[in-house]
Amino acid sequence: MIAIIDYKAGNLRSVERALKKLGFDCRITLDREEILAADRVVFPGVGAAGKAMADLRHLGLDGVLKRVFENGTPFLGICIGAQIILERSEEDHVLCLGLIPGETKAFPAPLPSVGDERLKIPHMGWNGLRLIRKHPVLSGIRPEDEFYFVHSYYPMPVSDTYVFGTTKYGIRFPSVIGNRNLIAMQFHLEKSGAPGLRILKNFCHWDGQTC
Amino acid sequence: MLSKRIIPCLDVREGRTTKGIEFKQNVDIGDPVEMGRFYYEEGADEIVFYDITASNEKRDIMIDVVSRVAGEIFIPFSVGGGIRTLEDMRSVLLAGAEKVSVNSAAIKDPEIISNGAEAFGSQCIVLGMDVKRVKPSAKIPTGYEMVINGGRTYTGIDALKWAKEAEGLGAGEICPNSIDADGTQDGYELTLTSLISENVNIPVIASGGAGSIDHIYEVLTKGKADAALVASIIHYETCSIREIKEALHARGVKVRMTW
């Protein structure tokens, strides 16, 4: 069973729908035992880092997520779930889970223009992904595939060893990061059509090993 | 870099899709879930479902449509039409829509934008604007006036002023729709679109008037739109979404080419 963490961030149903469409058994839950017993864990969400961390702490799920990570359970973070796995966030200046060393940073404002085009924040819409390191969850993704983003902050691990893919929007930023059994994407793979579903499916078959 | 988005717009009345020609003569062209899935598979970057159901009692039909669509398509989609309260927003978002679009209700009660943005996040809130060309005046300096009731009622509000105000209230995207151009297939209102795009910092979705690929090219370049809404041009098979994207790509506009 795949546990989808419900910490009231909204938009959780779309991950559930996508997993069901792919034929995987999943459940939205905030039950600690159920999360710890799950075969794999998906940590999605939208919203602000401060609120998300406060909700997690209030529900006692921050410790549970750290244990999921330490137990070696395949663990997928999406959007805000790719940000609050770092040590801290510039958004609301909040301490986060610390599963990957580094911090979540705000896009610099203003972003450098491209030609006569002003880059707006949030970064919203379809953008590419440059794969810089192989990962089983990214298998079959083509260089021209695009993914759906909506965010004003981005994850910045301390070292490139945690970065699997990058995306360019004014600056080039890490958009797929990971550490051992944890893999996380800044984009909404559940809203990114076939390539997004492909990543989700790969995750559902992943054993949590990076090589 | 971000791709320019091509967004089919489906008008839905009592659970069936239609396409209005200047808000009149609606022609039934099918089932919204089927149509949505078809355009998803054709490479649409997002889909808009616009509820034109007149009666309030039948609004639940739309919620059912939204939840069925959400189980079939895995790209963002938004729902507009008849969104008047925070509860209306909540019900379509919970049913699986990524975004809601508010239009006349926001003119009558601008707080719906700020309340919606606070409750669900700005990225969920699209401001739809129905705009008509008028003679520029002290009150309407741009010569573009906000209208409601399908274009029958003038509000005395300047379109650019309203767009900026809505951005300040927390709208995440703006979709100016030219009533003059809507359904004519004579091309988008380029001046209106670029005027708004140059003066706000949120994405602008051009709407109303697409009749050819040239029109779409123009609004995404000269019109400075981030996305283009398309309706009749694809519903009546003047061209397909794939053809639109291939042509734009060939002319140097960045669009998503694999799906």
Question: What does this entry look like structurally?
Answer:
The complex is a heterodimer of chains A (211) and B (259). With 211 residues, chain A is of the alpha/beta class. In chain A, 23% of the residues lie in helices and 30% in strands. Chain A has one domain (2-205): Class I glutamine amidotransferase (GATase) domain (Rossmann fold, 3-Layer(aba) Sandwich). Chain A contains five helices and 14 strands. Chain A is globular and about 55 Å long. The model of chain A has no long low-confidence stretch (mean pLDDT 93). With 259 residues, chain B is α/β, with parallel strands linked by helices. Chain B has a single domain (5-127, 164-250), classed as Aldolase class I (TIM Barrel, Alpha-Beta Barrel), CATH 3.20.20.70. In chain B, strand 2 and strand 3 form a beta hairpin. In chain B, helix 1 (32-42) runs parallel beside helix 2 (60-70). The two termini of chain B are 17 Å apart. The model of chain B is unreliable at 20-27 (pLDDT under 50). The chains are: A alpha/beta (211), B alpha/beta (259).
